[in-house]
Fold this protein.
Amino acid sequence: MKKSHPLRRIVLAGAATVSGIVLLLSLKPASDPAAASADGASQQQPAAPQGSGGVQAAGGTEAQTLTGDVVKTDYGNVQVRITVAGGKITSAAALQSPTGGRSTQVSTDAVPKLNRAAVTAGTADIDAVSGATYTSGGYKKSLQSALDKAGAAGAAGATGGGSAEASGTGGGTGGTGGEASGSGAGAGAAQAKTVTGKAVTTDYGPVQVRVTVAGGKITKAEAVQQPKGGRSDQISADAVPKLNAAAVAAGNADIDAVSGATYTSGGYKESLQSALDQAGG
C-alpha cells in the first residue's frame, strides 16, 4: 500500500487516537478529586491537644507559704515563715529572731535547730533548744499561728459537702464536733479556746493565769492577777513575762521557778495547771 494512500492515513489517525485515550485513562487516578481530598484531610488533621492532668496534679501539690505572728520575747521578736505542700511542712525559716550581744549567738545556734525540728515534726510540738528557752517559746508560738493560717486556708478552699462533720459548733462547747479527717477539718479541731485558772493566794498577793489553747497546745499565757505593791511590782514585772514564755514553750505547768520570785512562780504554776485542767490538757 502506498504511503499516501487515504486508507493508510485513516488507520494511522485511528491508532493515534486510541493511544491518546489510553494515555488519558492512565493519568486519571492521579488527579482523582476523591483521592486528593482524602490525602488533604490526612495532612491537615490537627494534633490531639495535650491533656490537663499534669497541670491539675501540679496544682494539687502546689506549695503554700504562710507567715506566723510576730511574737515578742524578753530578748526580741520572733517570727516564723513556713512552706506547706501536700499537708506537710517542707521548709521553715525565722524572719525575725533576737539579735544583739549574746542573743545573736543564741539565735544563730537555736534557729537552724528549730527550723529542722519544725520540718521533721510537721507541727509546733517541738522541743525547746537548750539555752534558748525564750527564742524557742516565741518560735513555737509563731509557728503554731502559721499552721493555724494554713488550716484556715484549707478549710476555706473546701466545698460545702466537706470530708468531715462540721456541725460541732452548734453542739455545745464541751462536746466533740464530730470525727475530723482531712485538712479542712483540721482547722476546726485546732480552734483556739481561752480558759482562766483559779486565783491562787500567796504571801505577796493572788496569782491567776489565763491561757489560750489550740490543737492541744498552749499558744498564749498571761497573768490576770499578780502580786503588786512595793517590791512586788518589780518582781512581777520581771518574773511574769518569763513564766508566760516558759508556759508556752513547755506546753504544761512543769516549768522552772524564776529566781527571786519563788512565791509568784509557785502560784503561777498552780493556777496554770488548773487552767489546763479546764481545757482538758
Summary: Residues 29-59, 157-189 have pLDDT under 50 and may be disordered. Helices lie at 6-27, 33-44, 53-60, 102-121, 133-157, 183-189, 231-250, 262-279. Residues 133-157 form the longest helix (25 residues). The CA atoms of residues 209 and 223 lie 4 Å apart.
